[in-house]
Specification:
Helix content is about 45%, strand content about 15%. The chain has about 350 residues and is an alpha/beta fold. Strand 6 and strand 7 form a beta hairpin.
């Protein structure tokens, strides 16, 4: 396990050292995750980028593709507390946040104590989040944004690093409740988990049906992840790159000066400023991963799809025409000029 580093970067030498340190730490975690996971490199990179950028991830894919295994493997590789919440229609907010219970005391009496819910953890897997009612889904809003949980008159500060990784099935919609826009907006990334490639199936079967299960060791600690998050936020963004991220975000808004025709025609609601925040934070993490201590246009473009795809609401006309959020983001990237 590696030790924590000083997150303060004040000169060029420290910047190069921080970028190298980030790449080394990133590679160590990914090697451990890939000891269990086969393929899905793009999804793994997206989840790890969001973790170091301090954001949350929505994983969308049909059952059996390893979404839960990925989150569990990541928690072991990072060496932090992990909790899993299986969302169901009868779940209540108290099942997530915690509640006050009556317990027996050693003297034979009774007293009220607050019992923390599974949200009080570091990495939280919200499995099949769209199966719970909006009332229960809303229990995550405060935790995802303010990093705290309020239950009754009690407010608990969540320890860092804190990251929610939610999964949802895009096909089976019976008995599900689509996430409201306010909650979707709190996810830094939305990643689509696809089927493995043909050459990956043999390795998947070997690891999951053999007599020995892969062993995942902690490659870092929660404290070092927090330290690297501080380094990510110190990566400078030139004004031109910042303007480019703003234009990409505004291009998702119908009627804006940067919106292409496909957005004005098929999009009912565009991204909030959180879209630009996601582009910059994720772009900073990608810059470090590429060995640079400055954000480029390529870094922003690389994270544009997972950062913006879930922040647009396609209108009925677009749905009837089969327009997808991926098509719209690609059109935006082709239309908005780079500085």
């Amino acid at each position: 396990m590696t030790s924590a580093v000083n997150p303060q970067v004040t000169d060029a030498d420290q910047a190069r050292e921080a970028a190298a340190r980030f790449c080394l730490l990133y590679a160590g975690i990914k090697d451990q995750v890939c000891a269990m996971m086969v393929g899905q490199d793009e999804v793994i990179d997206g989840v790890m980028t969001a973790l170091f950028a301090g954001g949350h991830v929505l994983l969308e894919g049909v059952p059996g593709l390893g979404k839960t295994m990925l989150v569990n493997s990541l928690s072991q590789a990072v060496g932090t507390r992990f909790s899993r919440i299986q969302f169901t229609p009868d779940m209540m907010p108290a099942d997530i946040q915690g509640t006050t219970v009556l317990v027996d005391t050693p003297g034979g009496g009774q007293e009220l104590r607050f019992q923390e819910g599974p949200i009080v953890s570091n990495l939280v897997l919200a499995d099949e989040i769209n199966r719970a009612t909006p009332k229960t889904q809303s229990a995550l809003l405060e935790a995802m944004q303010e990093r705290q949980v309020t239950a009754g008159r009690r407010t608990l500060q969540l320890s860092e690093p804190f990251c929610v990784l939610a999964t949802q099935n895009p096909v089976e919609q019976e008995g599900t409740y689509p996430l409201p826009e306010a909650q979707l907006d709190r996810f830094l990334f939305k990643l689509v988990v696809g089927y493995p490639k043909e050459e990956d199936y043999a390795a998947i079967l070997d690891r999951t049906t053999g007599s020995e299960a892969p062993v995942i060791e902690a490659a870092t600690s929660g404290d070092e992840v927090v330290a690297m998050r501080d380094v990510v936020r110190q990566v400078p963004v030139p004004d031109l790159i910042k303007t480019y991220a703003i234009h990409l975000m505004m291009a998702t808004q119908p009627g804006s000066n940067y919106a292409p025709a496909v957005v004005t025609e098929y999009v009912a609601l565009g991204s909030s400023p959180r879209g630009a925040q996601a582009l910059l934070l994720a772009g900073k993490a990608r810059a470090l991963l590429n060995g640079r201590f400055a954000v480029s246009c390529d870094d922003i473009r690389e994270v544009a799809l997972p950062a913006l795809r879930h922040r647009m609401l396609i209108n009925f006309h677009g749905q009837s025409e089969g327009i997808t959020d991926e098509q719209i983001v690609h059109e935006i990237l082709q239309t908005v000029e780079q500085p």
